[in-house]
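Anyone opening a protein record will find just a pair of labelled lines. A complete record is shown below as an example.
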Amino acid sequence: MRIVSLVPSATEILFALGLGAQVVAVTHECDYPEAAASLPKVTRDLLAPGLSAAQIDAAVRERTGRGESIYGLDEDALHELRPDLIVTQALCAVCAVSYDDVRAVAERLDSHPEVVALDPSTVGEVLGDVRTLAEATGVRDAGVDLVQDAARRIDRVKLAVRGRRRPRVAALEWLDPVFVAGHWTPQLIDLAGGEDVLGMAGEKSVVHGWDEVGAAQPDLVVVMPCGYDAARAREEALAHERELAALGAGEVVAVDAAAYFSRPGLRLIDGLELLAHLLHPDVVPEAPAEPLPVEVGVS
């Protein structure tokens, strides 16, 4: 089978299923696992480089408001690749090429590929997508194993934090404007032994004012700009040091959202373990990566 993945999280799942050798092309944002980064790219970013967070938000709103994608898809390359399966998504116009665009291109390809669209909003739906891809590619047993392993890790965290005080958490997915993380992130916070003070599990991320975030009185602020690594997230946080300090949280940290929170793949379980380590380090002493502290003058 020849597979084209148009979603970074799907690329990660396909490789975890042992299908890396069958993936013939990916997106320009697919950087994990390492082997995926060297595959042919069939997408490109249509936004101008070097934009600030506010400029990115404005550009995205402008293009999507006109019904335009923020990604380009290389149809000529897809004709040459002759895929049997294209994996895309219908969750977010900011995350990947739109589903409608992919369907239209697929119908013009001589190989007549099957198109599988992923649309998860919760951790359970992410694990359901693992099963969906496993079934579509004939590796059902591998999918079962991955889901069972994820479930064991989730249960291990839940058991470790059971009965403990639940710190109040604000997860910020963007800082200019402020987006409070939705979808699976509030669920991860809950499973990790925290209380998400603003996000709604399974719902879209929502714009809030800084005053609204402060009024929620978070103990911990997790800065996780969508698609950014921890270093860039920390840079964004420091650019908003005054606003973050005014929230009065006891701790502000920056995390690698691209690896552990933005992409609905199996590394969300790593994100869960990271949050549990942040919230309850005495019972969850290990984490897949250390968050970067952000000194904003809070005590």
Q: What stands out?
A: The chain has two domains: 3-145, 164-293.
